[in-house]
Amino acid sequence: MNYENMINELSKILEEFFSIRAHLFEEIIIKTVESLRTGQKILIFGNGGSAAQAQHFAAELVNKFLKERPPLRAISLTTDTSALTSIANDTSFDQVFSRQIEALGEKGDIALGLSTSGNSPNVIKAITIAKEKELLTVAFTGKGGGKLSSLPDYLLDVPSESTPRVQEVHLFLLHLLAQEIEEKLN
User: Fold this and answer.
1) Which whole-number Å values give the CA distances from 73 to 13, 28, 122, in the listed order?
2) Distance (Å, whole) CA 78 – CA 46
3) Residue 11 burial (10 A CB sphere; 0-12, 13-18, 19+)
4) Which residues contact 86 (CB under 8 A, 6 or more apart)?
5) For a tag on the chain, would you pick the N or C end, based on fewer CB atoms within 10 A?
6) Nearest 10 degrees: Cα torsion 127, 129, 132, 134
């Protein structure tokens, strides 16, 4: 296998992302720290690999990332199988995250949606409802943002159309965000 090509590709994507989006990422860090400092929470959601990343990020905040500290208020909307299956069965899979935001989201909270394509109907619906409820909305997507591109307050679109590379950058960004939150809240 030629790992070098994958490493070079990922490095170039990260460099391009930060040359274009560093200022937005820094704003998200500031807004997230402010929100958590005032007792608000982060609601994180996505499908498939993005669902796993949502759960991972929530765990890093509730437990710890690198430092012992008080727990932070974070909920992955991908983990309650009873809520997910009842909403999908009784209403629509397109509403599995938006219904939870309607129930749990409060003005000043942060809704962070992950969608590699930017076209996931349930992520789009959740961001739309979150905006209506005056949550700060953030979307991590692939190149261009897809249908999500104009919806969130902050769009962090990774400059790639390769699903694995986009997801790798999303995980890097979530880890970096967790690290910055810990540093700035201490």
Assistant:
1) 31, 16, 23
2) 7
3) exposed
4) none
5) N
6) -60
Structural domain containing residue 48: 3-185
Q: How many domains does the chain have?
A: 1
Give pLDDT, residue 1: 61
Residue 77's alpha-carbon distances to 11, 50, 145, 163, in angstroms, are: 31, 11, 21, 22
- pLDDT in the model for residue 81: 96
Q: For residues 39 and 73, what is the distance between their CA atoms, to the nearest angstrom?
A: 8
Kindly list the averaged pLDDT for each block of 10 residues, start to end, along the chain of length 186.
Answer: 88 97 97 97 98 98 95 97 97 98 98 98 98 98 97 98 97 98 92
Instruction: Tell me the whole-structure pTM to 2 decimals.
Output: 0.96
| 75: DSSP letter | E
Residue whose C-alpha is closest to residue 51's, from 129, 104, 115: 115
Count of beta carbons in the 10 Å neighbourhood of residue 155: 21
Measured N-to-C along each axis, helices 49-62 and 163-185 cross at an angle, to the nearest 10 degrees, of 10
What values do phi and psi take at 155, rounded to 5? Answer: -110, 120
How would you write 85-116 as a 3-class SS string?
HHHHHHCCHHHCCHHHHHHHCCCCCEEEEEEC
Which tokens belong to 4? 């070098």
Q: How far apart are CA 57 and CA 73, in angstroms?
A: 11
